[in-house]
Amino acid sequence: MTYRVCFVCTGNICRSPMAEIVFRARVAEAGLGGLVEIDSAGTGGWHEGDGADPRTVAVLAENGYATAHTARRFQPSWFSRLDLVVALDAGHLRALRRLAPTEQDAQKVRLLRSYDTAAGDDLDVPDPYYGGAEGFEECLEMVEAASAGLLAAVREDVEGQAA
Fold this sequence. Notes:
The chain has 163 residues and is of the alpha/beta class. It has 5 helices and 4 strands, in the order βαβαβααβα. Strands 2-1-3-4 form a 4-stranded parallel β-sheet. The longest helix is centred in the last third of the chain and has 30 residues, at 133-162.
């Protein structure tokens, strides 16, 4: 059985594609590629059909990640097929939980940085869109830091499904 994860930010061109691409690499490195499906979306549809922001692409490429991506908008109907919906900030978390058709679906939504034990109380990944390259680099650092804890949680869920 495939475990499905979707990362969600506002427009699906900066934070969520970065998280999707980084986490896909971590899942592949862990040998779970055939068991975990990863994608991303935005809470809004402003950028549907667009590629990732060029600054996202540049930061990912500079750090050895693949960069193929096409933006799309999150649909409430997806909850039924997803195991985990990962929000990049508290605003996304609230929006996604409001979209959830059931309480069980709302419980699938988690903040990315909640998987980073060193994150402290600020669990938002700041939106780098209106800033410079340093914001995108900071975003990548936060995504990478949370990916280890997220991978451990997903591995546990995948192994639980197999049992």
